Protein: Threonine aldolase
Organism: Streptomyces fuscichromogenes
Amino acid sequence: MIEMRSDTFTLPTERMVSAMTQAALGDDVYGEDPTANRLEQLAAESVGKPAACLMPSGTMANLAALLVHVERGRKILVGNESDIYLYEAGGASVCGGAVYEPIPTQPNGTLALDDLAAALPPDPDDPQFALPGVVCVENTHNRMGGQVLDQAYLAELRRFASGHGLPVHMDGARIFNAAVASGVPAAQIAAHADSVQFCLSKGLSAPVGSILAGEVGFVAKARRFRKMLGGGTRQAGVFAAAGLVALTSMVDRLAEDHQHAARLAEGLAEVDGIDVDPKSVTTNIVLFRVTANGLDDEHFLHAATQRGLAMSEFGHGRIRAVTHRGVSSADVSAAVAIVADVVREAR
């Protein structure tokens, strides 16, 4: 199977498996796992923050960040196409009594400052209105096709948020894809946010784990929420060891995934009955539409899977294909051929 549903399907490298079996271990809830501690230090440095906390998942890391930033009854200003809003089960409302305020997401993944301003209460002293508590931004932006947010925009967003006394949280699940694609270091990207989450288990290929980074006091509070949410693992060094390998050896190779995604988009653009804009592909996510008569998304995906290609439906009439370490150059060529075959047989 050529697996393009997500980069979460990456498997750990041999070096990761070896590191996991040899990791020095302790009890991470007590702060005594040396491998987890080393990973947190390296992770904090990689995004230019004073401290970091290892979390089991990106969902937990984002939730912990929101619980620290937002008091009960306050609003989370978040994109209506963001992972936090769509795919994380409303955790901040369930666990923290916070209100999600969805902001229209622009095609490039940004949130227009005018739209954010419109979400602010006309009179913050009027008790009828829920007050804002945090602004969330996603980089790269998954639902917008892996778009990298421009540095100038992030600077403007930070100035806007600071002007209204609001922290910025960055869901940087794929921040290293953004860094590699833009040539801007991850620390420079994260500098525009008070806190940042990134995944070790997507393109970086670790089997599990995400990082939440920020100021020392912020991370200390997040660590308490991690425990409350059930994320206090014990010998965390078993999977932290893979995270260390991910951060030290897997970042630069993300460029190969981006090249494969670009070639995939270019190949799909040559298929009559497929609508895709290769110029919109900047990282490892390709979004396209099936326009062939008599072929809907469900039947297209089923037929592709039967031929050995797994992709996913992605809303708004789109299909998503994600490249990663498990997808080779030959797989890209085969994927284009399979799509062309499916479309041709449907005619």
About this structure: The longest helix spans residues 329-346. The chain has 14 helices and 13 strands. The chain has a mean pLDDT of 97.
